[in-house]
Specification:
By secondary structure, the chain is of the alpha+beta class. The chain is built from 28 helices and 38 strands. Helix 2 crosses helix 7, helix 19 packs across helix 23 and helix 20 packs antiparallel against helix 22.
Amino acid sequence: MLGTRTENVAFRRGKRQGLMMSVTERYLRQDIPCAHKSCQLCPQNSDLARRGLPQLSDGMILIPDVSVVSRYIELLEHSHALTNLVFCQSVVDALDRRNRTRTIRNVRGIAADSRRTSMVFANEVFDQTHVDAMLPARDNRAVMHVAAWYKAHLDLVAGQKVVLLTLKASKSVRYLSGLYTDYQQPGVEVWQLDEFLAEFHPALIEYFASITESTKDGDMDITEMTPAEYAQARLLAKAQSGYPSHLSPSEIEDGLRSGTLIRGKIRILQPGGAMRTESQGIVDRGGAADTPDILIVGRAALNRACTGDTVVVRLLTRAEENAESNDSILEQGPEETGGEEDNEAQLVELVEAGEETSLDDVRKPVRGIVVGVSERKWRPFVATLQLDEAGGSRHLAVPVDSSVPKIRIHYMDTTAIADKYFVVAIDEWPADSQYPQGHFVRVLGPVGNLDTEVDVILVERQIAVSQSALKFSLASMREMPISTAQCPWSPSAEEMSSRRDLRDSLIFSIDPKGSQDIDDAVSMRKTASGGYELGVHIADVTQFVLPGSATDTEAMARGTTVYLADRRFNMIPEILSEQVCSLRGLKDRYAVSVIWDLDSEYNATGVWFGRTLIRSACEMYYEQAQALLDGATNVDGLDPKMERSLSESVVELAKAMRVLRQRRYEAGALELASTEVKFTFDKESGAISELLPKSSLEIHRVIEEAMVFANAAVARRIYEQFPGAALLRRHRSPSSERFARLVDAARTKGFEVDCSSNAALADSLRRITEASKSDPDIVFLAKSMATLAMQEAEYFATGDCGSDGYLHYGLALGFYTHFTSPIRRYADIIVHRQLLEAVTASDVKEMAPIGSQKWVSDTTGKLNERNRQSKRAQRESTELFQSRYVMQKTVGSGQQHLIADGVVAEIRTNGLIVYVPRFGLRGPVHLRDSSGQIKLALSVLSGDASDSDSFIGGCSEFAVDTKQLSIRLPIDVPVFQLGSHVLRFSVFDHVRVSLRVLETRRRRPPVYLTLVSRASSRANGMRADKSTLPSLDKKLGASAASNSASSASKKASDSENISPTASSKAAVGENRATGKSSDYYSVLERFGEMSLFETHCDVQTL
């Protein structure tokens, strides 16, 4: 039925007509339904149900205002935990006045999704919610009027809770009457969006923070200007630069010569947590170890620089610098490790994994601004689609790498790339453009598909354009030897005659179970003189991969085999890596061997290098060899006839390697820890059946030491022949400032760490290990911190630096290279060629390019980058499958939480970094949100994981330093289980955390952690009943009896001060994201029943 006639006024900007005002007539109605399924007052609701249209359900009703919908529609659209949303017609009209057609489509899409139980409410034509168009802040008032009407209307039906979401309320406002005094409807709560998410949906805080960061410099919030102001500003706006102009080439050269400007490579930091408020970048000056990096803060200061660009920077004066530091929880990956099937020392890979060190772990940088870009390093970026708000063919591509800005592209058929990953390229970034301009390249596949996710990793790490592109070329396959089941490959008589024949020697390999690409084997036997002969035999790949061949060109381009969690991409064709070159058992194979003569004390008295012909007697896997080392007999899978001989060789090999390893330790070698995990998959479904940290056996260390021994010997030999062009590997000494976090953390446990040298650091770590045998997690974290503090190891040509720069810090070796894995590393192929040239005494001048310092130097630079990207791909693959595993264990199984023990690895200004040994991952636990509000989980008191989504209100005195984080609980909180009202967290503390996955449409869903309880050892005891604590009842009995009455009388009033929303008990119960009835008050009741409700007694005296 129709009622009063009204007018709706809007301003629009036309391309030809300029600014226009449009007026629309409307008639108010009285029959607009509330659309709540439980409401019987609105007869039209039954018609909605009959027609299958979405209806509001029982539960909290959320009414977002214009500011929330215009800026955070992505959050509302893709966060299915947010249901019962009521979008006001006033909000839609406001969006329409700004031509925000995509946002309007998203709103309607949410309303049309039956799972969201949401709707668009026609408040503008409903006589009970219509607001006069002439009132100030008219749109906001209209939304508030709708909230007040819903609360009053549904109080008559179901007593529904109504929440108004906004970006405009101050933190002191919690009810509608606090915003406008003419809205006195009780019970309508007003929440700022970030506070609401932190309270009820903490899993969405990171998503909220990322949107905030990406939209902070834009005009997404349309409430910042009136419609007329906005249209006028758009009409009159000229192309004005949001960025300073870059200096001219001549100005840059003058500045570099005078020293007022500095050139370096920039790395844009990942947005990390709610506490980071500005974009940041680090410029590596490429100088000496004591040269500080340059910190660039803010988009204007970054001035259109992207990661990898070579930029020119002007240092800020002291007056220009912002002295405030930020040590909040940043996005930081776990330690990087080597390839999955590497028989070489895991220790080697660990000490070379120090490239991803957070800013806090290094020396304090100086501040600067980018004034020019000397060289762009734009690469193809993987992105997802964000349609341009104005519609049409111009859209924003959102890169999966959150350090890369959105890219403006032109694409007509958006349906073809919606909800898909695609590749984009940047063409230019004009100074007058907020975003770089680029173009669409190609589609990768649907978001969430496993193969597509792998393709994303390959493209982002610049390994390949797709998995299919990693197939070997026809030219390469034509160079391969023939080997089939009917006609297996065998050595030629001519080649056999030129090699040392070792087929009668007892040679064996030890690798992970199921390995196909076996590139190393060992031998150990006693000699008649009372000494030993030790042999390390490596697959002779260079026999088949000739310099300049198609296979050689492809292998050099790949640089390394890429190991992912569930697959690998080989550097050389499988016919070589798994058949002809692989040192398979009982097969004649070509090898390059290093054979030592050792005396009875395992000192080398002679060494031989050369090409050999071997026949491995046995392919053992680690567990079999460890059983032999432990003295077992009748080991499963081993030939009984060979077992005794193998056992003797393995035992002798282990004895020798223990001595060699100890010598390196005494010289300062470091023993570090690995976070590598292993996935097992169900053969039928492909689901992850298990995720476990990789076990560490002594036999691993035995083989590692043999490979290190061979690599060091080969390094010295090729250096003798190629003093300026030998390909070696170095690990530079880190500066002492990098160890500050380790030093501070160790002191919390009473340890002093001396990092003045590798020997001093190794001694400190050994003392920690000896004193912490009962707590291996402390040992692991200490070694992990040492790993993160180190610089990345790298290949280099010996002519690039003096001999004092050859040192491998982690291994305590003066000469080191990679020789033992030519099947999977191209650097090893070069080293093999140099070694073979050295032992055949060829003329160096005829050995170009391997004798050319420039060629070796240029090649090592490329190989370093390929290895770095391969490690990152491996890490990202591990994170992908860790995420899928957690999702499988939670969302897939229907359970809310995956609980695990963790250890505090770092203290940050807004929480903790926790390492979870069981799953080999580390992540942030936020204890304070972006507004500074303390978010301590209720489960810390209850020990119940379901309480981890509710928080204890009234906490105070959030204090942080590098060693400890402390929070003071409200005075009437029952803290018997905690021991004090001041809750403290230190590095190495044990905690219990809940693991869940934050689902997102645009990026790989990350695993996030929430705190369950402070100490994992207490987790089972915290739910004990009264009968389990008789001695406690006796000691607390008098105190509890004398204070029970006062405690009970104070409970209702005091509890309002500590509840998450400072509202009633019923409201707190509804605050739970999990929807369970247990709340803060029920926890108090449980403690009261257990006679644990503490008043003034000193727990420490009990």
